[in-house]
Design a protein that fits this description.
The complex is a heterodimer of chains A (407) and B (614). Chain A is mostly helical. Chain A contains 16 helices and two strands. In chain A, helix 3 packs parallel to helix 16 and helix 8 packs parallel to helix 10. The longest helix of chain A is centred in the C-terminal third of the chain and has 34 residues. Chain B has 614 residues and is an alpha+beta fold. Chain B is built from 20 helices and 19 strands. In chain B, the strands form six sheets. Chain B has a five-stranded antiparallel β-sheet with strand order 14-13-19-18-17, with helices on both faces. In chain B, a hairpin with a 2-residue loop joins strand 15 and strand 16. In chain B, helix 10 packs antiparallel against helix 20. Chain B is elongated. Classes of the chains: A mainly alpha (407), B alpha+beta (614).
């Protein structure tokens, strides 16, 4: 059994154990999601997911031994490769509604998943090597550029959900690198304007608030003006940007605001998801027995809406247990980010935490109408090969970092 | 800023992140609590009231036409009867009550229940070829069978039946093994797919895409009405196919095939590659496979020693016999080792001694001295033994490989055989050991025996190359832009004058009194070709004929075999079969062409030295 011990990666293995447990629950639920009364392509999805899980475990065992410096060094190359793949997939990709898949014969890959990791690593490398305090908005130009390139490429697919994740990566990295909150606020404010631009009144109030903030905070004059101009521009761009969205994306956002608006069209998903979850009750309808799921009322029930199946079949108890487990996992990852001294490692781990947290909140929130439907998968539980692989690659990095901070 | 302050900031920011994390999760849990615990009753009710069911609507398969627009495969109205899923007990009971109306045997009910157990959530197809009487019996007792669904299901029909079985194939319900294959990844249980022939080869375009219809069902599960607003998926009808086949000619081949014999015949248009006839005998009726073949009939077909299911044109390979001599001649003439007037050192005295063995000629008295033209015309083995030796084993192996022997032609039919031909000397070494064989293998290979097995299709393609002098067409059943005129990546390679000399020799085979096919010659068309007599261990030799016509400008290449069809040297059953098909085809193309002047009348009956008895 000695070889088994040599296989054991250094570091905190409770994270790994928890992740594998969640992934196995995921496989079981994907299996259940394939048990439907109408012809479904998802019947054998669970087998494919199991194979991907095996591959992910191999990747984990290999990568959790790779010295962190290698990743630091490789981040530029990885980033370049990821950008090249994103361009390639825009030109030659496949997929329903979007061009996000790279067709490699038997398997499809989503380069956006690799791009997320590569962007995190390059951001962490850049922010950790910067000496000195960040005092000016202009000092953030390079990190912003690193994120904007993949953001635009992914948004062009168009995959809005993944694009938003890149936004989360940028904010998380800057936040953890210690960028002052005032500067972060200035950076984020045009994004808020973009959202509020639908209502001139609300946007006007927001603009006043920014003006007051700038007066109190007194940044460099040029930067203050830049922030104001950016906010005006974003507010004005809201409507053209809205028209630029694909109709299905518009529908999803509208339905998020008014689910009953189109109960048999775009609202269908959300209503059926809520009925499924609601009818689960305390203990659920029982594994593989959910009638909503069996009749395939849930769309994408093995990928985006797997949590609705969980709600229907495992009930509130199952939902609660899984959310708590996800919470513990994320909390521990945050702990690793906090306790490591190495700032490259720390920023990387924190960004992974932020990305997965974003996925969890948006995906689970979407099933109950708290979040718009974006097609972001649920970490460890949703069906999806490249996503699962990247989760375990990320987890390998976290485990590796935890070993460093322990020793 | 010092380390300590940095760490303090980090700790504060981590605490804020933790707060956000647990705050969000708490909010999510609260929302789920409201939905699942407080509001549960309402949603349970709404879930139970969900009375929509998705039902697959089968796509009609495309119609298949021959080259003149005659129907080779069509859809006729039919009905399917299926049951919506329910508990196993009610299903068994329902099947029991259905049995008298649908004439279900106990074994069939068992089979259906077994299928239900494997796919408990899907609709169970009880009958996919229900008669009108069975349907009306069910419809009259609707209340008794609330979960039964009766639907129009187009039923496949092959008007030409047995005549085109091996070419067209048949359709049937997808099997569990097929469901596992990646090709059928989008297919669901119960789907009708092409199982053989063209139906199988072109399944993806013929099959179409089934649609989905949403229906509202009652609490008992019976269909109340269509559910309109929810967008159903439209059925995409399968695409029609046009074949290069001449259906009338195919039926003619069926009608004149020697009764009680086994074999096959294939005819190609050497200019386009269109397969005009592809017939294998004995045959079966593909219509009997529709709606599930009767188990006894299936077993009978499987176990019949005559193998009616075997496609003898493209799936079976036979020793090509003397038809292969033209391959030797073509290789030798291309390399300049043989000329049309070449003689071999030893004249035919009925056999050739080599080593301590006597390699026989088919004519025990011997042919005497013959040049290449005469040896082709009279099919002299002794000449070709020596021709093969003059070429040498290496040149023969190389040449045959260049001409595609040992590879499939690439016809658009499933299960094409590549045939067999030794690829190299190493092949013999591996098979027999380095000293386990001698150069004498070249003798047998040269007369189309030994380790030499070819399909009718492969031989037809080689003769197409000889007939046209170009790279031969790749035969294809379906007529399409993409397939028409596709050519193999090789040509016979003969200089034109030598190819003409070979064509003259092949013409003499059929049209000169000493030719082996002379007794069956056409009086209307100049047919060229070569007979073959393939020795086999099971009985009388197989009878081959491969040829083409008109010689000057070939429009049809034909290859025919009749197993055991050459019982003695007076009878060669494949030759009249092939020549009558050629005549029929060319007559249909050129009804006005007057008959050639009759060839010079022979003095009396065929002289005895040609009607040889061994």
């Amino acid at each position: 059994m000695r070889w088994l011990r040599t296989l054991r990666p250094p570091g905190d293995l409770r994270l790994f154990t928890l992740a594998v447990l969640l992934a196995l629950v995921g496989v079981a639920m994907i299996h259940s999601a394939g048990q439907v009364e109408v012809p479904s392509l998802a019947v054998n999805a669970w087998r494919r997911q199991l194979l991907w899980l095996a591959l992910a475990l191999v990747a984990f065992l290999t990568l959790s031994r790779v010295p962190l410096r290698w990743l630091d060094w490789a981040s530029v190359w990885l980033y370049g490769a990821a950008i090249a793949l994103l361009v390639f997939v825009l030109l030659f990709g496949t997929g329903p509604n979007t061009r996000s898949w790279l067709d490699l014969g038997p398997v499809g890959l989503q380069p956006a998943e690799l791009a997320k990791l590569a962007t995190i690593l390059l951001l962490a490398r850049m922010l950790s090597s910067d000496r000195g305090e960040i005092e000016r908005l202009s000092q953030l130009a390079r990190p912003v550029l690193i994120v904007v390139v993949p953001f635009i490429l992914v948004a062009l697919q168009p995959d809005l959900g993944s694009a938003l994740v890149f936004g989360a990566i940028l904010i998380a990295a800057l936040y953890w690198a210690g960028v002052p909150m005032a500067i972060l606020f200035m950076l984020v404010s045009p994004g808020v304007s973009l959202l509020l631009g639908f209502s001139p009144l609300v946007w006007g109030i927001w603009f006043l608030a920014i003006a007051v903030f700038l007066y109190l905070h007194r940044p460099f004059a040029a930067e203050g003006i830049l922030v104001l101009v950016a906010n005006v521009a974003a507010g004005a761009l809201t409507l053209p940007f809205w028209r630029g969205l694909a109709p299905y994306q518009q529908n999803r956002l509208l339905v998020f605001l008014h689910p009953e608006m189109d109960p048999r069209g775009a609202g269908w998903h959300l209503i059926q998801s809520k009925v499924a979850i609601g009818s689960g009750g305390w203990l659920g309808q029982g594994y593989a027995r959910g009638p909503q799921k069996r009749l395939a009322f849930l769309p994408e029930q093995h990928t985006d809406f797997v949590f609705s199946v969980i709600g229907e079949e495992l009930g509130f108890v199952g939902v609660g247990v899984l959310l708590v487990l996800l919470g513990i996992l994320l909390h521990r990852i945050l702990g690793v980010a906090r306790s490591t001294e190495d700032s490259f490692a720390s920023i990387t781990v924190f960004c992974l935490f932020a990305v997965w947290f974003t996925h969890v909140v948006i995906n689970v929130g979407m099933t109950v109408g708290l979040m718009p439907i974006t097609g972001l998968p649920l970490p460890f539980l949703s069906y999806g090969g490249s996503f699962l692989l990247m989760l375990f690659v990320g987890l390998a990095i976290v485990t590796r970092v935890s070993a460093m901070s322990n020793s | 800023m010092t380390e300590g302050v940095q760490n303090g900031k980090k700790r504060r920011r981590a605490a804020a992140a933790d707060l956000l994390l647990f705050g969000s999760l708490a909010l999510l849990i609260a929302v789920f609590f409201r939905l699942q615990v407080i509001g549960s009753e309402e949603y349970v009710l709404r879930s139970e009231e969900n009375r929509l069911r998705a039902i697959t609507v089968p796509a009609p398969r495309g119609t298949i036409y021959d080259r003149h627009g005659r129907i080779a495969a069509e859809n006729v109205p039919g009905y399917s009867i299926s049951l919506l899923p329910g508990s196993p007990d009610t299903l068994a009971a329902t099947l029991g009550r259905l049995a008298p109306y649908l004439d279900l045997s106990d074994a069939e009910i068992e089979r259906l229940l077994g299928k239900y157990r494997r796919f408990p959530n899907q609709r169970l197809v009880v009958r996919d070829d229900a008669s009108f009487e069975e349907v009306s019996a069910i419809e009259q007792r609707r209340p008794e069978f609330p979960r039964a669904v009766v639907e129009m299901l187009p039923r496949r029909h092959y008007p030409a039946g047995r005549a085109i079985a091996h070419l067209i194939g048949y359709v049937g319900e997808i099997s569990e093994a097929e469901l596992e294959r990646p090709v059928y990844a989008d297919y669901e249980q119960g789907r009708i797919i092409g199982k053989d022939g063209i139906e199988r080869q072109y399944e993806s375009s013929l099959g179409g895409v089934p649609g989905v219809r949403f229906v509202e069902v009652s609490a008992l599960g019976s269909i109340v009405r269509d559910f309109g607003p929810r967008p159903a998926i439209d059925v995409q009808q399968g695409a029609d196919l046009e074949l290069g086949l001449d259906l009338a000619l195919q039926q003619f081949a069926d009608s004149i095939f020697p009764p009680g014999m086994r074999g096959g015949v294939v005819a190609l248009d050497p200019r386009t590659g269109d397969v005009l006839v592809l017939y294998s005998h004995p045959t079966y009726d593909p219509n009997e496979f529709i709606g599930g073949i009767d188990i006894d009939l299936w077993r009978a077909l499987q176990e019949d020693p005559a193998k009616p299911l075997l496609n003898r044109v493209s799936t079976a390979a036979y020793a090509p016999g003397s038809t292969f001599k033209l391959v030797v001649a073509s290789i030798g003439m291309t390399a300049g080792q043989l000329g049309i007037g070449s003689y071999m050192p030893t004249s035919c005295f009925g056999g050739l001694g080599y080593g301590n063995r006597l390699f026989r000629c088919w004519k025990p008295d011997g042919h005497g001295p013959l040049d290449l033209a005469g040896a082709i015309q009279q099919s002299c083995n002794v000449f070709f033994y020596q021709a093969g030796m003059r070429l040498g084993l290496d040149a023969l192996l190389d040449g045959a490989a260049r001409y595609g022997f040992g590879r499939a032609t690439g016809i658009d039919l499933p299960y094409e055989t590549p045939g067999a031909f030794p690829p190299s000397r190493e092949w013999f070494d591996e098979r027999y050991g380095r000293r386990g064989w001698t150069e004498s293998v070249v003798l047998n290979l040269s007369i189309g025996q030994g380790e030499n097995q070819q399909s009718l299709l492969r031989m037809a393609q080689f003769y197409a190359a000889l007939a046209t002098g170009e790279a031969p067409v790749i035969p294809h059943i379906v007529r399409s832009e993409a397939l028409s005129g596709r050519r193999a990546n090789w040509a016979a390679g003969l200089p034109e004058d030598r190819r003409r000399q070979l064509l003259n020799a092949l013409t003499a085979v059929v049209n000169e009194p000493k030719g082996t096919a002379y007794p069956y010659r056409s009086r209307r068309w100049r047919v060229a070709g070569k007979t073959g007599t393939a020795q086999n261990p099971h009985g009388a030799p197989h009878s081959w004929f491969v040829g083409f016509a008109p010689v000057e400008n070939p429009e049809i290449v034909i290859a025919a075999i009749v197993e055991f069809g050459h019982p003695d040297n007076t009878v060669s059953q494949s030759v009249p079969l092939a020549i009558r098909i050629v005549e029929r085809y060319l007559d249909s193309l050129y009804p006005e062409v007057p008959a050639r002047p009759a060839p010079p009348q022979l003095p009396g009956p065929i002289p005895p030295d040609e009607a040889i008895t061994p």
